[in-house]
Amino acid sequence: xxxxxxxxQAHFARRWGQLRQPHVRALAxxxxxxxxxxxxxxxxxxxxxxxxxxxPALCDWLARxxxxxxxxxxxxxxxxxTRLGLYAEKLMAFYxxxxxxxxxxxxxxxxxxxxxxxxxDFLLDAGPxxxxxxxxxxxxxxxxxxAATRFDTFVGPNLADSLGAKMRKIVGKQLALGVHPAAQAxxxxxxxxxxxxxxxxxxxxxxxxxxxxxxxxxxxRGFWCALAEVGSLTADHWVVLPRLQWLxxxxxxxxxxxxxxxxxxxxxxxxxxxxxxPVLVAAVRECDGVLxxxxxxxxxxxxxxxxxxxxxxxxx
Length: 316
Description:
By secondary structure, the chain is of the alpha/beta class. It has one domain (4-315). 30% of the residues lie in helices and 26% in strands. It contains nine helices and ten strands. Strands 1, 2, 3, 4, 5, 6, 7, 8, 9 and 10 form a ten-stranded mixed beta sheet that branches. α2 packs across α5. The longest helix has 15 residues, at 84-98. The chain is globular, with a radius of gyration of 20 Å.
């Protein structure tokens, strides 16, 4: 695992360590975290959104929201979110609405009653002449193999997706929705520009690996290892991250929640007896009575490498 001083977790603790509310911390991560993709790389043809500029006013707004999160809680509602992407969309919709940018969220486009063409994640005010279309993606990919040679070598934990496939869909289809005749008939103003806002974490074997062209150099990153390798991890204390806590670095109020490496390995071994879904875990340290994440990674079943390689071979 990398040195703490070099991690995004350390950056987040310095800038947002005062935030306590989980939803506010997740929103701060969505706004502040570097995108997965390098917006300046010509591969993306100018379709990747530039990073949010973190201003003192934005920091103050998040601090006030953390002190009184009632408006955010009301916007999220009482629904128990099971899809991380939907949760992230709701958080960003709240931000855009609170800052006077939101024109529409989740606007469906239908060519006919039974023919859905697509959906705009966000339409933002771009002035009197039009709107900006934003497609939001929050993704978590593991590098299959020892080196990043193409975007498809970054695969989802369950092997059902890849970074390459996701971006082909976003750039080739979703960002073109604004030019569809059915969309143009529905839009309040023309789409002047369309961008992908791609946030997430990339995970490398043993935490090492250089980013390839097109990937943001300072992207959020972690490690992955097989269950049999957990005993060689260097950190002493660990927690399992529930899905809705995958965005921002973990902060836990109960020090007693932390597990030793041995306890983590045993717990995951039991979990893998009934399922083969990789599990996201965080290394934590105690600070002033709370647990703070210092690193994170996916622990995968011992046969995951073989299954991932087989899938890559099938797609090649």
